[in-house]
Amino acid sequence: MNTLYTDILIIGAGAAGMAAVLAAEKKGYQKILLAERKETPGGVLLQCTHRGFGLGYFREDLTGIEYADRFRRMLEKSCAKILNRTMVLQLYQDRTALLAGKDGLTRVCFEKCIMATGCRERTIQSLPVGGTRPSGIMTCGTAQKLMNIDKLEIGDEIVILGTGDVGQIVARDLIKKGRKVLAMIEQNDVPGGLKRNQEQCLKAFSIPVMLKTQITGICGSGRIEGVIVRHLDTEAEEFLPCRTLLTAIGMIPEREAAGKLLEGASLPDWFYLVGNCDYVHDIVDSVTADAFKLESVL
Ligand SMILES: Cc1cc2nc3c(=O)[nH]c(=O)nc-3n(C[C@H](O)[C@H](O)[C@H](O)COP(=O)(O)OP(=O)(O)OC[C@H]3O[C@@H](n4cnc5c(N)ncnc54)[C@H](O)[C@@H]3O)c2cc1C
Q1: What is the whole-number distance in angstroms between the Cα of residue 253 and the centre of ligand 1?
Q2: Residue nearest to atom 35 of ligand 1 (CA)
Q3: Closest-CA residue to 120 (of 252, 210, 216)
Q4: Average pLDDT in the 69-79 region?
Q5: Which candidate, 106, 120, 82, places its Cα nearest to that of 256?
Q6: Which of 33, 44, 83, 86 has most ligand 1 atoms within 8 Å of CB, for mutation?
Q7: Which CATH architecture fits 123-249?
Q8: How many helices (H) and strands (E) does the chain have?
Q9: How many angstroms is it from 40 CA to the middle of ligand 1?
């Protein structure tokens, strides 16, 4: 197996990982290895065609793609060695990591490691929802990637479960593309998300929100035909026909590669978590700001 040596190993090249490279370089490190499992750096930013990124850091209203491009240009000028299409499988206590890339497995020996692996979405399987599991059900993030990166159709006559920022932004994207968003289902008595998204998505696009409701069942074989919606005030249930169900029901920090390192009461003094794999940030500026703080602790 090939072995690489580096001062700093950074895992994940989203907003957090890219800013972490710049922070480490500013601190004086020159041997920095950035491993990213996808083809190119950018992370979730690359599927965000909407504006609302960088108001803090760049003082401009950029799309996610534009925000990623600015950091990618800075990354290109940095001293970091970037390994795309490379997944970090496991980190070990002896400051080594096992990586899987296009040339097979590689062992990396490092002094410090920054984990910037982002988060993944909870799926419908994590909720007590009965009924069948036909096609036409996916998370909002997956729908956004399929539409904006892969240019694929995800379906029409859509119900969205959850009214957080991601759900609202995807609902707006869909309406702009001519799709029907029949309802957003929200168990609380107010919609979730940032005030600005409520204004720019729910209000501006008159997206129907069913408050104090939950989905208790899914109907259909082959393709989804509808969902059972329970009204929490009255306990009454209704059948809401739809052909697509998207979920926006929260994110889970992605830290599996850290394995046993996370079992102790505190993290090893050579290991750092940053960005959405530390905690889920509402806006990218906050991810970038956190990653830049690494300069003072590395
Ligand atoms: C739909 C949506 C809309 C948003 N809208 C806005 C907005 O309008 N304004 C705003 O400011 N913010 C917005 N955000 C939030 C912001 O985009 C994110 O908080 C930020 O980009 C997250 O950056 P990150 O680096 O922590 O995670 P990510 O971007 O998820 O990056 C993590 C990277 O790590 C890689 N990775 C994971 N595991 C491994 C591994 N084991 N080995 C190698 N690589 C790995 C992944 O492939 C990924 O590239 C939005 C987010 C979403 C999902």
Answers
A1: 10
A2: 12
A3: 252
A4: 97
A5: 120
A6: 44
A7: 3-Layer(bba) Sandwich (3.50)
A8: 6, 20
A9: 13
Could you read off the pLDDT of 6-63 as tens digits, one per residue? 999 999 999 999 999 999 999 999 999 999 999 999 999 999 999 999 999 999 999 9
- Residues found in the chain: 298
Question: CA 161, CA 237: separation in Å to the nearest integer?
Answer: 16
Outline which parts of the chain fall under CATH 3.50.50.60: 2-120+252-296, 123-249
> What pLDDT does 187 receive?
98
Digit-coded pLDDT (tens) for 78-128 = 999 999 999 999 999 999 999 999 989 999 999 999 999 999 999 999 999
At the second CATH level, the architecture of 2-120+252-296 is: 3-Layer(bba) Sandwich (3.50)
pLDDT at 265 over 90: no
The amino acid present at 129, given as its one-letter code, is: V
